[in-house]
Design a protein that fits this description.
This protein is an all-alpha fold and about 550 residues long. Helix content is about 75%, strand content about 0%. About 55% of the residues are buried. This is MDR family MFS transporter.
Amino acid sequence: MTFSDARQQGTAGDAPARLSHRQITAVMSGLVLSMFLGALDQTVVSSALRTIADDLHGLTAQAWVTTAYLITATLATPLYGKLSDLHGRRPVYLAAIALFTVGSLLCGTAGSIYELAAFRAVQGIGGGGLISLAMTIVADITTPRERGRYQGYFMAVFGGASIVGPLVGGAFADQATLLGIAGWRWIFLINVPLAAAAAVAIVRVLRFPHRPVRHRLDYPGALALAVGLVPLLTVAEQGRTWGWDAPQALLAYAIGGLGLAAFVVVERRMGDAALIPLRLFRIRTFRLGVGLHFVVGIGMFGAMTTLPLYLQLVRGMTPMAAGLATLPTVAANLAITLLVGRLIARTGRFKAHLVAGAGSLTAAMIVFATLREDSPLWHAMVGMALMGAGLGASMQTLTTLAQCEIPRTDMGAATASVNFFRSNGGTIGAAAFLSILFSTAAGHIADRLAAARHDPAYGRLLARPDNAHALAGVLRPGGGVELQDSAFLRALDPGAALPFLQGYVASMRLVFLAGAAVTLVAFLVAAWRVPKLTLSDE
């Protein structure tokens, strides 16, 4: 029986005919390449973000580079589910790859940190479909029990991207120029040939027949969602600059609240055509799955954006060295992902893995919160291994939880919703945690500088010509500091740099403690609210 024959034996509302492992693997070969493209872009940027921000003179605004991508990817994700129901998975997937490629080319030409953020927003519109559609297609062609196994391959792809991304990002960031172009710009330009290869793979393997689902596209819902999310995510990033109770912050809260309220009203009226059908929330497992995705996304993205800064700002590592140092995260993630996927496929049970994963993430945050400026590298690596194991055990089981009781006719909308809530959590985590870091770092550094200046030996260190030159433009007359660019740390004598490193570590400790509180909530909910289910093999 051919792949097309197998697909044609079902109706639009029934389960498709059972596909062989070989047939599913053929489709997976195209999907994993596309997902690798999206996953690589996230990891390759994170390892080089400090270099990019220094070159574009926007260290404290670097959260926009991550936040802009996540905002547009989050808003686009639900639309991709509906568009693929109407027009088929393949053409919509190819459109996502094309948009991602255009955004990558634009990012390679950015002249300021805000320009880069705007182009990352374009990139995010395409990136929102790369992961969501891949997970939807896997849900289309597998049984609930099989999904853990095949979604484990996706997690392995993320693990592989986590290995390659920091190394590639670090290698490019360490090059002042390459072929006459600034090294970090190749981080985005390299996406072009990768996207071409992914598009060819999708055209070749994604060929099953499409049965269109006739419904309207929920443009009013998309508009209301944008009105609700963008102001709230913006104030999460800019709150430290404006003041959390400043007039513009209060206005953003009000507009965001009204937008979210309008979104709920619109979704009720749209019914089955809604971006996120509200009736899905009557299903307990779906409700728990998307809620936990949101919470875990906050902690995951918060840690993933802060840890590279610890390695580079505090430990003084190059981007490439920092990427190599994160290998424990990658190794643990890859091993646990594959192990958990096979165990779920064999037993049909997943709660224990989910609880253990959330607990491991919490433990990782606590380990990171105990780091000091002089901690040995193995100390950080213990936390990395715990984080990798936690992500490997929890992310695929959360998706399985959200999908396990969803009818196949709603699988596209449900899977898009899962990614929507995870992306929302990630957006809030990246913006809020970096906001905590940079809103408190200047004060912590100023306090430690004031204390250090009581020591005459430290005063003599600052007066040395090389240190005085490095700190020109950093130290303010009133005792404050300007942290738009961290390049001065590389030129400072280690003794002179110590108060700066201590201040950064104190702020990072707050970030990781906040992450621990968030992931602890996920652990408690997983342990006491998630039911013990056995997945169907039909």
